[in-house]
Amino acid sequence: NEIGVFEMKDAGLVEVGNPSRMFLEERPEGASGSVVLPCLEGTRPLLVEIQALVGPSPLGMPRRTAVGVDHNRISLLVAVLGKRMGLEMGDQDIFVNVAGGLRVDEPAADLAMVSAMISSFLDRAVDKRLVVFGEVGLAGEVRGVSRPELRIKESAKLGFTKCLLSPSNLDSCVAPDGMEILGVDSI
Question: Which residues of the chain have pLDDT under 70?
Answer without folding.
Answer: 1-3, 17-23
